[in-house]
């Protein structure tokens, strides 16, 4: 029988549960995998409860359930659902590794704070996801898939009729017409889920490859009469459109949107302001009772002009739901996937039993945003 290697790296996870966050960056199953890779795990009391993982579950998996200060004192690397607060950065020991969605594309001051604190920072949003070796580390793909699924359930719950066609003694009820704007990972999952619930689904994305992807799921592709032939950017993400292209797209989408009962927008550009896909004029053209779920809503704006995080109902009776936290509402599965992503990132950087950055590696070049590239474990 193979022996479990002696632990050489200590990995810690905090309780990030909040009003909007139910996920945890380590699950018992992944802790077991990490232990086999020579990683011992620490987790803060109650960190997994909102995701249906008890402290007992972690203890049975060999995780040390402890307090925040012990984790700060003993961990070589820390994994986050989001990112450490600026206050926490000042508490983390110099030389510790930090793994999370760090917002490095837009928050240079934050990255600078990580650097000044002497931390090695691994920004998941910079993962070169086109590499086959990076697929299991891709948190955006895993969490966006959960988000797309949940977005349809939220819309179905708020919509005042059935999604599928229903024939009853009182007559036939037509199926809901759903429009998915953005056919990336979240959008494709939303298409599949809406189709399974019986809606008539149409989708749109600026990337040329998206048409065949949409149609392969049995949905129609919305023809706007426009050609953004260079719609795909680096790493498989949609590129940001030019101002002229955005104006053309918005006008066309606004005109077509009035035909639909449910609209779900998923077009995120990682770390940057999302493109507006539906303007106030487009929303005003929707019929009373229509539901819009904006998955890209954030402090930077959303895909729907004027959308905010939370719910609002327009004077015309259209419900707009700004919902960036949907993955957290499927917390058990989302945590399982996220934990696998974070765990695989961690083990990627373990070489010969030490946390090491190799700047000759494409993944390392892309993701390390702070820290001495020659740095290994703290205290080494």
Automatic annotation (TrEMBL):
Entry coiled-coil feature ranges: none
Domain of life of the organism encoding this protein: Bacteria
GO cellular component: plasma membrane
SMART domains linked to this entry: AlaDh_PNT_C (SM01002), AlaDh_PNT_N (SM01003)
GO BP terms, alphabetized: NADPH regeneration
Domain Alanine dehydrogenase/pyridine nucleotide transhydrogenase N-terminal per the UniProt entry, residue ranges: 12-147
Catalysed reaction, written as an equation: NAD(+) + NADPH + H(+)(in) = NADH + NADP(+) + H(+)(out)
Domain Alanine dehydrogenase/pyridine nucleotide transhydrogenase NAD(H)-binding: 156-322
CDD domains in alphabetical order: Rubrum_tdh
Listed EC numbers: 7.1.1.1
UniProt entry keywords in alphabetical sequence: NAD, NADP, Nucleotide-binding, Translocase
Record InterPro entries: Ala_DH/PNT_CS2 (IPR008143), AlaDH/PNT_N (IPR007886), AlaDH/PNT_NAD(H)-bd (IPR007698), NAD(P)-bd_dom_sf (IPR036291)
GO MF annotation list: NADP binding; oxidoreductase activity; proton-translocating NAD(P)+ transhydrogenase activity
Family recorded in the similarity comment: Belongs to the AlaDH/PNT family.
PANTHER family per the UniProt record, alphabetical: NAD(P) TRANSHYDROGENASE (PTHR10160), PROTON-TRANSLOCATING NAD(P)(+) TRANSHYDROGENASE (PTHR10160:SF19)
Chain's role: The transhydrogenation between NADH and NADP is coupled to respiration and ATP hydrolysis and functions as a proton pump across the membrane.
Protein name per Swiss-Prot or TrEMBL: proton-translocating NAD(P)(+) transhydrogenase
Organism: Bifidobacterium canis
């Amino acid at each position: 029988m193979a022996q479990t290697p002696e632990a050489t790296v200590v990995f810690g996870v905090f309780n990030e549960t909040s009003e909007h966050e139910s996920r945890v960056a380590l699950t018992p199953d992944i802790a077991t995998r990490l232990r086999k890779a020579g990683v011992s795990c620490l987790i803060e009391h109650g960190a997994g409860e909102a995701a249906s993982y008890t402290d007992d579950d972690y203890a049975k998996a060999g995780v040390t359930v402890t307090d925040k200060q012990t984790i700060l004192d003993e961990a070589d690397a820390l994994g986050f659902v989001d990112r450490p607060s600026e206050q926490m950065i000042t508490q983390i020991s110099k030389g510790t590794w930090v793994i999370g969605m760090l917002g490095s594309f837009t928050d240079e001051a934050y990255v600078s704070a990580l650097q000044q604190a002497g931390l090695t920072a691994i920004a998941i949003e910079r993962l070169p996801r086109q590499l086959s070796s990076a697929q299991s580390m891709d948190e955006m793909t895993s969490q966006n898939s959960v988000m797309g699924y949940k977005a349809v359930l939220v819309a179905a719950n708020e919509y005042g009729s059935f999604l599928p066609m229903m024939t009853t003694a009182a007559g036939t009820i037509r199926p809901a017409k759903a429009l998915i704007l953005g056919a990336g990972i979240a959008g494709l999952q939303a298409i599949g889920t809406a189709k399974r619930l019986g809606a008539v689904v149409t989708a749109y994305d600026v990337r040329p490859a998206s048409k065949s992807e949409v149609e392969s799921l049995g949905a129609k592709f919305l023809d706007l009469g426009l050609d953004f032939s260079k719609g795909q950017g680096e790493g498989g993400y949609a590129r940001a459109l030019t101002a002229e292209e955005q104006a053309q797209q918005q006008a066309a989408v606004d005109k077509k949107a009035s035909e639909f009962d449910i609209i779900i927008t998923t077009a995120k550009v990682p770390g940057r302001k999302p493109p507006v896909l539906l303007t106030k004029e487009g929303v005003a053209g929707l019929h009373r009772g229509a539901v819009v779920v904006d998955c890209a809503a954030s402090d930077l704006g959303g895909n729907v002009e004027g959308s905010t995080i939370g719910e609002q109902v327009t004077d015309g009776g259209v419900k707009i739901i700004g919902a960036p936290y949907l993955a957290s509402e499927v917390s058990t599965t989302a945590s399982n996937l996220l934990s696998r992503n974070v765990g695989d990132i961690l083990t990627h950087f373990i070489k010969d039993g030490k946390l090491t950055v190799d700047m000759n590696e494409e993944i390392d070049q892309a993701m390390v945003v702070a820290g001495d590239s020659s740095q290994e474990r703290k205290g080494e």
